[in-house]
Amino acid sequence: MPDIDMDFCQARRQEILDYVIQKYGRVNVAQIITFGKLQAKGVIRDVARVLDMPYSQADAMAKLIPDELGINLTDSYAKEPKIAELCATNPLAKRTWDYALALEGLNRNAGTHAAGVVISNEPLWKKTPLFKPTGQDTIATQYNGKYVEDVDLIKFDFLGLKTLTVIEEALQLIEKRHGKRINFIEEDINDPEVYEYISSGDTLGLFQIESAGMQDLAKKLKPNGFEDIIAMLALYRPGPMESGMLDDFVERKHGRAEITYAFAELEPILKPTYGVIVYQEQVMQIVQTIGGFSLGGADLVRRAMGKKIKEEMDRLKEEFAIGAGKKGFDMQVARELFDLIVKFAGYGFNKSHSAAYAMITFYTSFLKYYYPTEFMAAILTLEKNNTDKVVKYVDELKRLNITLRPPNINRSDLVFQADEIDGEKIVFFGMGALKGAGDVAINSIIATRNEGGEFKDMNDFVSRIDASKVNKRVIETLAKAGAFDDFGHSRCALISQVEVITESAGKAMLAKKQAIGSLFGDSEEMITVTVDIKPMPEYDLLDILAIEKESLGFYVSGHPLDKYREQLDAINYTLSSEIEDLADGSQALFIGKIENIVEKISKKGNKFGIANIMDLHGNIELMLFENRLKELDEDFDLSKPIAFKVKITKDGDFTRMNILKIESLKDAKKEKVKVKKEEKFIPEEILPTLSLAINLMPDSKVIEELFCLAQKYPGKHPLELHIKSKLSDVIIESKMKVSQSILNEAKELGVYKEERLAING
């Protein structure tokens, strides 16, 4: 059985889980167990601890394991000669290694799946052993996600989709500012102004269409209705793009290519996609309308086309032609139509899935077009911990003529706030994003402000706050961020005299406590203190930017490289935030100011350095060999921006940047850089686990051939090999590329039957 995936607002996912437990019963609902594995470095440390190896030795041994994602001990031993040397000279290390090798890959600890839930119509203990996760008031299955299906349980994935939370946050900001709650059901889903906005390519922040490739497609396609958005999401995948389907779709939409139909009856089916077969549902409609298939038969055709088994396709083709003939259609034309269906069906996407996502795309587009300030404030709230995204959205604010201001003690909230002052659109930084403040202190300040009105000045602030929650660290952080700028004191004065401010707040709080216990004392509301803050000149801009970066995580009032922007605008360079968009083998020109260089000595005794380089969007690190270090020291002024031409090498999740050239901004203007972008596609539907069952036989030929098969088709998709014997069944898990080719070869070996193909999440 397939999993059932459901997307919910990220912030309210727990509410859904609580509702399901309340509706179906606590004993009928459970989360699903997951297991943490004993992996290379971890198993070394665990075994070393049990064998009483000194921590320093265990740490040094674990650090010999190369920093490669998913590496195992066997590969580590082959790649790092020092492991063999250590094991040969240290008996305890050898013993540790041998035990670790035996234990690697076993389960270490139990947890719960981040999203997986099972719901039953009877108490779950009748179908699966259960356990109570530590610190949780719920139960979980002891069968993991692969095996709950075997006991007739359906796995639900309750997924938290961040974009839904962004939408809800934006709707709340709109309601707060404009006094109305947007109801998308009442809005025109084909609003021409919204689609004109999408067609401009200004899609940063819009669900599924904010990548550079999607921005380009939006400008080419110029969608003018909801159907076009559904098609955009379905077609922006490797298959349709490589086959020419996407280009054909664009050309037909704009009348540059002819739209023809083999039979007039196809027009109602294919007209929304300009005669191109885009969706699996269209395939099913065609074989029903032309070939006379039932709905169930049409679904079988859809599935068969995905598998591309020649004998099955030939049979269906003839059945389709005969059915078409019975309905009065030309059988030869029907056969040609079937061939066309087969060509496009391999790339067909599920329309209902695409339509659901397209709806979210429309919502975000509507909000950004009509309420850009609220929408961008909502995005910044949800992405506040992702510096790379924040700097992109800050640039987008500038493009939209929206000012981002530091937090303001009277206008800011826990989250980013949308505002307008004298016609200027403003987003105020959320005080909840301050590093070192904490939600408890900020909520206390906001509650005090809501109860007694805005703070008039620093005296009013320290007189009213709860000093037990708003301590010295919080006040200093607020001052560094600029939250008190409206009070007329320089940030320098407030930061330098934070002790005085904190003491005054403490005195006010003590006086309020005494007033409560006094029969004739002042009322709590009447108590005020005066803070003697001596005037001091403000920091210079670079110092202000530095303390903003410290408290906010990035620059708000400006950027240290602002004075070089005019020169930078004349250069074709890449920002640090765009590294992930670069393809393997691409060149790039990074420009930034070197903040520091950490010099090191390699294992071979060679000198090298790691340079931390700040650009307009963040920081990158580049490795500099000795000759490059010397070049920088002798030929460049490190107080100014420097250009680095690099070559990008990608290996899985790792990106390396090899320096090709170092040059000044003047020389960088003439530099030719071969930039290649890596396309980011909407994920394909999850491919199934290939589950094969064979009997254990004296002749090992079948097992050997299966092993060769797995070696022949390496990939990321899971393979389960069930070896059955009289004593017990053994399950071997591996990774391979699940494709029709491998299914055909497995079938020839006699170990694969269609009904053994199971969907495992």
From TrEMBL:
Q: Does the keyword Transferase apply?
A: yes
Q: Which UniProt keywords apply?
A: DNA replication, DNA-directed DNA polymerase, Nucleotidyltransferase, Transferase
Task: Tell me where in this chain the DNA polymerase helix-hairpin-helix motif domain is found.
Answer: 402-493
What Enzyme Commission number(s) apply to this enzyme?
A: 2.7.7.7
Which top-level enzyme class is recorded in the Swiss-Prot or TrEMBL entry?
transferase
Name the reaction it catalyses: DNA(n) + a 2'-deoxyribonucleoside 5'-triphosphate = DNA(n+1) + diphosphate
Which biological process, per GO, is one annotated for this protein?
DNA replication
The keyword Nucleotidyltransferase belongs to this UniProt entry's keyword annotation: yes
Pfam families with a match to the protein in the record:
DNA_pol3_alpha, DNA_pol3_finger, HHH_6
- Coiled coil start-end: none
Question: Which InterPro entries has this protein been placed in?
Answer: DNA_pol3_alpha_NTPase_dom, DNA_pol3_alpha_thumb_dom, DNA_pol3_finger, DnaE2/DnaE/PolC, DNAPol_HHH
Signal peptide from the UniProt entry: none
Q: Which part of the chain is the DNA polymerase III alpha subunit finger domain?
A: 163-327
Q: Which GO terms describe its molecular function?
A: 3'-5' exonuclease activity; DNA-directed DNA polymerase activity
- Give the residue spans that cross the bilayer: none
| Bacterial DNA polymerase III alpha subunit NTPase domain span | 1-160
Q: What is this protein called?
A: DNA-directed DNA polymerase
Record organism: hydrothermal vent metagenome
